[in-house]
Amino acid sequence: GQIPQNHYCLLEDIRLQGTPEQQAHFFGLALQGHRFANALSETGGKHVQDIQATIRREGDGYVINGRKGYCTGSLYAHWLAVLALDEQQNAQLAFVPRGTEGLVVVDDWDSMGQRTTSSGTVLAQDLRVPAFNLFPTHKSYDSPTLAGPFAQLTTAAIDAGIARAALRDTVQFVQRFARPWIDAGVEKASEDPLTIIQVGALDIRLEAAEALLDR
What we know:
Elements: H1 2-17, H2 20-31, E1 36-39, E2 54-58, E3 61-71, E4 79-85, E5 91-97, E6 103-105, E7 120-130, E8 134-135, H3 147-176, H4 193-214
Parallel strand pairs: 1-4
Antiparallel strand pairs: 2-3, 3-7, 4-5, 5-8, 6-7
């Protein structure tokens, strides 16, 4: 879920910010099966928009330097969208083919959940980018768009799916392995009224979340 979420959000960025020529090029790549992943966030800042990566003009292109974290899908993508600030502190989004010299994808994602999202580190070390691959993402909020709500909706759907799987696994564990409390007066833990109430309450809240997503 996380991998297509990033892919489609970046395609929306291209639709909103790209020239007709850029849209034709990158949408064509997507139709050929190319996958896009992000290198947006950074670790250690005061807040999520505290970006330290820089991009500067050099010749007929640009050079990016910086360290990115939580780069979901980076190991599986054909292209990475790298966020950096220019000399005027405007955010620019550069689309870079994975394998480009100066772009280092680090396989260091180690988490308890979502282990295969590949949300590790990406390094930009004197990374050269042609001007054609640059998108003025700082203009994204000059007018209202559905880019933000789309990203939030898909993320919420992923979280709801995780919750549904966790609840299913909980029920299966109780049915197969758990023992009833000594004072419950039942033979199986799955027949304990308190357990049924708690699981039912979780299921009701999850049903409400899923219904809200459907709307």
